[in-house]
Protein 1
Amino acid sequence: MENTFGMDQGKIASEIAKISWFHTFNFGNGIVTSGYDDSHKRIRTLHMPDDLSGMTVLDIGSWDGFFAFEAERRGASRVLATDSFCWSGNGWGTKDGFNLARKVLNSKVEDLEIDVLDLSPEKVGAFDLVLCLGVLYHMRDPLLALERIFSVTKGRLILDTHVEHLMTNRPMIAFYPGKELNNDPTNWCGPNRAAVEAMLKAAGFRRAEMVYQKFGFNPGYRAARAIKRKLINHESLRIAFAQDRMVFHAWR
Ligand SMILES: C[S@@+](CC[C@H](N)C(=O)[O-])C[C@H]1O[C@@H](n2cnc3c(N)ncnc32)[C@H](O)[C@@H]1O
């Protein structure tokens, strides 16, 4: 049986099964990728405008591309997806998911393998909307990364990141030289909310606003989560208790 785009569904299913997915795509007709990320739930936390008609969108660290394809579905006139770590084969995944999803969705999303720190208007242009989701805490130099991201943002940035509540309103960044966060040596920093907002401003953004906070200050929930992480990842209880996830919007 063929789907709307002329691809054989049995073939799609067998190609999908070969890939280790990060994003969860629902391609219809019961074909769903077994992604680690609950992408359909997460999209709602981003507060991405429903209508992106005529807008240009850059998705930095796109991996399987779920959010880039979603921007295209919402009407963006041009979408560029970029990545380096995973797409180059050195990361946790590959580019196979992105390539297959683009084919299945009959998408025109463009792709470019480029490191965040190499982004510049000369190399990629400037975009009405920039998505930087789940990338900032992988940066050894988060302020430098935000400066590069600012340089390619014409309108608004949506930034989704791990944060730490460092029991202070002063801007501070936790540094993870080892595997302190999620047992993953590619995680380098955990800024608190004040540090994210201050860095966005220091990078050049005129206004920054936190639009979503995952865990908040419910102590029971935070404690249960911290104990789970201690048991699974052997993380420090104190550090795990302080962790959260936030989404910021920032305007040029
Ligand atoms: C946790 S995943 C997030 C994927 C996707 N943006 C999302 O939020 O679901 C982090 C992504 O950032 C990419 N990445 C990490 N370091 C990078 C760098 N220095 N330059 C470009 N991409 C990078 C990884 O390859 C990976 O695809």
Protein 2
Amino acid sequence: MNFFNEAYRGVPPWDIGRPQPVFAKLAVSEDLGNEIIDVGCGTGEHALLFASSGYQVLGVDSAPLAIERARTKASQRGSKAEFMVADALHLAELRRQFDVAIDSGLFHVFSDRERVAYVESLRAVLRPRGRYYMLCFSDKEPVGWGGPRRVFKREILANFSDGWRVDYVRPAKFESAFDERGGEAWFSKVTRTKHLPRCRSSLIISE
Ligand SMILES: C[S@@+](CC[C@H](N)C(=O)[O-])C[C@H]1O[C@@H](n2cnc3c(N)ncnc32)[C@H](O)[C@@H]1O
């Protein structure tokens, strides 16, 4: 996605230079296994946070400039977090599996069709009972507010209705330069089950 790479020539509004509060809390409140993938990691604040908590972390992003900056931060901070350019819609190509996937601000950039591919892609890199933690802007933001697509709770439930268990979808805040009060968001936890999903094309409702 060239739009994102171009955005990293400056400091994009979502790149606040620190982890989102919900992920900072998660890092100290739950046992997340050993291996974590940060999908759409940007310049790496969340991957670096979880690596500093002792997890083995891979951050992936499609924007080469973001990955370059994340690697620089890792080397400056002496972090073992790894970073690579990769497409979130084709994570199977990594040929690796993780206990947890985190996503801060990626799900809400995708179209309906991409979301279906993304959920399948996540499934390919999460171990059975692996967990996906996701922060996205919510429908509580006003229509036409100028930021990324607003996500309804029912959309999250529908995307993860088959082969997954939605543990929670909680109201949260998204810190960004879009709004100094913090944007209205959903913070979700979803667990991969053993059950194999059926065909998901019925979820493609717009475009
Ligand atoms: C809103 S930003 C959030 C970045 C970071 N997680 C954060 O919290 O600062 C969304 C990120 O997803 C990345 N992205 C967009 N589409 C992608 C794709 N198909 N595969 C991997 N990364 C993607 C963008 O380059 C961007 O860094």
